Amino acid sequence: MKVLFTHSYFLRLDPKQDNTNTPFPPLATIYAASLIRNNNYEVDLFDVQFCESAKEIETKIISFKPDFLVIYDDGFNYLTKMCLTNMREAAWEMQAIAKKHKCKVIVSSSDATDHAMNYLSKGADVIIAGEAEQTLLDVLDSYKNELLLNKIAGIKYLQNNELTETANRQVIRELDSLPKPAWNLIDIERYKARWLKHHGYFSLNFVTTRGCPYKCNWCAKPIYGNRYNAHSPQYIVELIKDTQAKFGYNHIWFADDIFGLKPNWVKEFNELLKKENISIKYKIQSRADLLMEEDTIKHLKESGCETVWMGAESGSQKILDAMDKGITVKQIIESCKKLKAAQIKPALFIQFGYLDETLEDIAATIKMIKQTMPEDIGISVSYPLPGTGFYEKVKSELIQKSNWSDSDDLDLMFKNNYSKEFYKDLHRFVHYTYRAAQAKQLAKTFSFKKNNIKRIGGYLYYLNSAKKFKNKIISYQPDAKAII
What we know:
Elements: E1 2-6, H1 15-20, H2 27-38, E2 42-45, H3 57-64, E3 68-72, H4 85-100, E4 104-108, H5 110-114, H6 116-121, E5 126-128, H7 133-144, E6 155-159, E7 162-165, H8 188-199, E8 203-206, E9 209-210, E10 229-230, H9 233-247, E11 251-254, H10 265-275, E12 281-286, H11 296-303, E13 305-313, H12 317-322, H13 329-341, E14 345-352, H14 359-372, E15 376-381, H15 389-394, H16 420-444, H17 450-457, H18 459-476
Parallel strand pairs: 1-2, 1-3, 3-4, 4-5, 8-11, 11-12, 12-13, 13-14, 14-15
Antiparallel strand pairs: 5-6, 6-7, 9-10
Helix pairs in contact: 2-7, 9-10, 10-11, 16-17, 16-18
């Protein structure tokens, strides 16, 4: 039987990400494709990353003649967890095309899990919830052998026009048992060309773990559970060794929710890279408290880590506690200092708009950014996603809109102390204020590397833009003048 894989992340439908020119292959998709191929199904992939329209899949369906279309989103890509409506509509269009050609349609995505009836009513036959590789194999085998679906854990489907949900699927604990991703299904050269053209190097994505044991109450529910399961350092080093020469990448984005949480993992990873004489630069996501542990930063630096993104979220301890972050502002500041001392670049995710945020909380966050002066910041507003405690608190207010259209939407969709217009302009004000301060700092330190020249040259633009948005903020909220 033939299985055609695809996913629903179209760069063209997310202009902000399209303009960054940092595309990564759909990693979770090719993990699943590899497992299904190893179980005697004929497998192909239609990668929609660079497609202009969902309609383009029809040519592939006509030529390949699949029995199944599997829309399997890359759960390692945080953008797919946002449940963006642009991608949802594209997925529905692909479902309709597949059904026209008599394909069974199976969907694995955060959005389909949260909105199962919508996907099923648009033609999907089965929705897979949670970690999906083994579940997908069970579903395919069930159809092939003409068995009932009701014994398969981790799925949603219609029975007598009513939604049926089976028991939760247990996550895979021994990740090394998974076959390596089906890289040959990806046109790697297309990704590589875009990276080289716009950045001068090529970065490829890997994951070393699945799941997150922390319980931030606003965070997208983890596809891979609240357990934290890890590949062995040996598996990951072997994966790098197998692919680095083949694909010509010199940088890795480790897309784990949290990299290196397991005791001694980073140390063993560092030692194995040295033993194999592998040189690679990489960036990760981590937590401020983990970076305070002895020798963690040392092993990160020695193994090639260049950048660490942290979910700082707020400079207000009141807001961090309300989010159940489990970290302190002091830890954020200290971990940034430690990273800089090791010549690793700290980068911070910032979130405005959490419930009951005040101007004083906003001022504390701006102060923290100025104090730490990270290499980069990513600013968002609180975004309620089904399955989170935060969503439960505000869901009754999500009447006009409950999902963003794309990753730059950043619309505050619930009632808070300040308006959505306030927060959109606050985002821009903080961004430009930070960029101006960064440009000034780089000029003072005579850091005239290629990437820094553009930042330094933009100082006046950043400064004038910050003033413009400051005035807009004050026009909405006059008392904001005292804190910005």
